[in-house]
Amino acid sequence: MLPPLAASWFGAIVAGKFALDIGLVHMAAMFFAVYTAHVKDGYVDFYMRGEDDDHPMTIRGCRLALAGATTGFVCCLLALLVAVGPGAALITLPTWFIGYLHAPQFDTNPVTTTLGYPTGIALSILGGFYVQTTTLTPSIAGFALVFLVTLAGVKIIDDEQDYAYDQSIGKHTVSVTLGRERARTLAVGLMFVGLIGVLWGAVDGLFPPSSPLAALAFGVVGFVAYRADPTVATMLLIRGAYVFLAVLLVAVWFRPFSAVGLPDITVLGPYTYLATEVAFGTVAFTLLVYAGALWRALKTIVALYPIAYVWDWYTLEVGVFDITMRTGVDLFGIPIEEHLFTIVVPALVLGIHETIHAQSSGGPTDEGAEAP
Predict the structure, then answer these.
(1) 366 pLDDT exceeds 60?
(2) Out of 85, 260, 289, 336, which residue is the most buried by the measure of CB atoms under 10 Å away?
(3) Spatial distance between the Cα atoms of 115 and 110, rounded to a whole number of angstroms
(4) What is the DSSP string of 237-301?
(5) pTM above 0.85, yes or no
(6) How far is CA 317 from the centre of its chain?
């Protein structure tokens, strides 16, 4: 029950100064919407499908709970309509339908079963912001989209826990539809896009400068969860999502890096470009050694070098770009730094590629076992 309520307050905090009473009403609306989803889902899974082994409520209890939750939601909706306006009611209303129709209507389709909960969280964020401001901004839309995409990836892995049962009853989750391996790949891709979205938002000025720390924290959890079984992965990712939201909340409320500029590495003068290549080259080398793919990568880089060299020489020759913070040493018609660039960039790409696939196969590759 906690995440949608926290999402509502997150939207209010993004709004800046907020009215506590209006925020509480919207939070209560989210509570009733999510409670409706829980009761209806439990009712369907136990009494209609026989999916669950037990259920704490009788049929009559479920119906009374649904009626009470719906009544509470309607009361909150009317309060928002009177206190804020029709826009507040309209942006809040879909959350109840998502909750009520989750089972058995939405949870058998791979799209709706995946996007139902994330959409509810996104609407909770948007609603929490709107009831305070009566408007929506690119910033809050960006936050909502980030959570929608990221949580969609988490939901795919969550549904993977019931893969065997869902397959046996024809319940078309993403895992059943695509297969477990491709579904896991899609889930990781969605989470990655969501986290990259935080970086884009911070660079573009939509999000506070410290927001990428939240993406980094969740990314570490996602990396650990990537090869875990569905139950452990879901447990890790849900807790990681709490951390993600908490760090974003701190970033929005306190804005710790707002007065701190980017580090100015140009103090290195003509060695600035070279220093960045050494730094990223070290990362590339470390990844390739870890993945056991240093020799294989070297052969690929050597094959790529002539193409990269000609491309680089031509673009410099016709004035496509100019390099200022460099040593001024040229070799074979291009700066010495550009020779290193044509080595470091593919090395970094291959290092990341090999490390990811080493993780997928359960460990680093064995160079001695490689085919020639």
Answers:
(1) no
(2) 336
(3) 9
(4) HHHHHHHHHHHHHHHHHH-TTTT-PPP-GGGGGGGHHHHHHHHHHHHHHHHHHHHT-HHHHHHHH
(5) yes
(6) 41
Closest CA to 21 of 95, 76, 74: 76
4 with 48, same domain? yes
Task: State the pLDDT confidence band at 41, using cuts at 50, 70 and 90.
Answer: very high
Query: Which of 92, 110, 129 marks a domain boundary?
Result: 129
Same domain for 224 and 100: no
User: In the predicted model, is pLDDT for residue 368 greater than 50?
Assistant: no
Query: What average pLDDT does this structure show over 191-210?
Result: 96
Owning domain of residue 342: 265-369
CATH number of the domain enclosing 81:
1.10.357.140
Helix and strand numbers (H, E) in the chain are 14, 2
Per the CB < 8 A criterion, the answer to whether 337 and 274 are in contact is: yes
The last residue of one of the domains, among 85, 111, 129, is 129
CB 30 within 8 A of CB 95: yes
203-226 per-position pLDDT tens digit: 999 999 999 999 999 999 998 898
Taking the C-alpha atoms of residue 9 and residue 11, their distance in angstroms, rounded to an integer, is: 5
Please say if the pLDDT value at position 84 is more than 80: yes
